Amino acid sequence: MINSGVFDYVNVLSKAADAAWERNELLVNNYSNANTPGYKRKDLDFGAQLRQALGNSRYESVDAKVARVADMNIKAKVYTDSANFSYRLDGNNVDPDTEGVELASNQIYYNGIRDSINQEFSNLKMVIK
Predict the structure, then answer these.
(1) N or C: which end of the chain has fewer CB within 10 A?
(2) How far apart are CA 38 and CA 20, in angstroms?
(3) Residue range(s) defining the domain that contains residue 28
(4) pTM of the prediction?
């Protein structure tokens, strides 16, 4: 990562993009294991970690919060979703239709982050000119 205040937003967005990519891999793995007896779906939560890191101080500016978060080592949390719940008698709790919807939603989220990173670089390019 780049250690300049100019790139704080890019660094935070990059962490979010990495988490979205990792979530995509988990969702694909869930879909692949839809017929595996006893398999429990896994998911990833990065949003709560980011909200907690950004929300530590009400009296800081957004720029100050982002600068602080850019230096933090925020990790996405992988968890087993509804471990005690099952759609089938074999103990599997993966619903292929739900996984498809989650994959589509995550792809839209990832594309939004990617567009935001591109916009940040466009803004920097404009300032440099």
Answers:
(1) C
(2) 26
(3) 5-128
(4) 0.82
